[in-house]
Here is the input.
Amino acid sequence: DWLGFIAAFVTMALGSVAQQDVFQRVTSARTEKIARQGTLLGGSLYLLMAFIPMFIAVSALLIDPAMVKQMLSNENDFQQVLPTLILQRTPLFAQVLFFGALLSAILSTASGTLLAPTAVITENVIQPLWGHKLSDRKMLVLLRLILIGFTCCVTLFALQSESSMYQMVQDAYKVTLVAAFTPLVFGMFWRRATPQGALLSMACGVVAWQYAEHFMSDALVPPQLVGLGSAIVGMIVGSLAPTLMGGQGHPEIVDLARQPEVADNPPA
Here is the structure.
């Protein structure tokens, strides 16, 4: 199923652009050149490191095919192929290294997942609503409260969900793919992009994705691609239509980004 493979690739590759995997690295770089090189290097390291557990999991087909067949017979037991292989076929020292690295990866991902939305909500939503009048002490208290709230919500969702870890990660990337990717890319590269177009894009993307997810799950086109296409259409229509909300866009930012001498040599 090539369409399903393409949908999975687009979800993980493009959905991560608007998340901290890519966007945080780009925005924290000093110059455009560093941002570009850092993103490519980070992506290469991601790919290299991902091949290690994949290679070990594939080797299980040769080492213990009966165990793999048993795990794959159940829907969610495929996640146990690699841990079972490590427990049954490796010494204690290797088991400690494997599960220590696994726990470290989970905690690292969880911390980033909690800190990123906490910072965005506090700095970009609550702080402007208060007119940037909150003191540093109040901001710190607010950050901690929002972090606790996000932690409780994520924990409840994970406990009630029957999805595998891969499915939950993929669902998280679907949200940014249909809601944030299109406004971000069009806002950076299209001079006629407007806030109205961005709002319509997010609304169309999320609504179309959820509709396809619940009522068209057996359709030929995967739901996230339906949402992405709707988001693109909404962005174009909303930006070209008469402006009713949000004001005008910022074409000068797009023009500035196209000047390499400015982008690669920012003022001190």
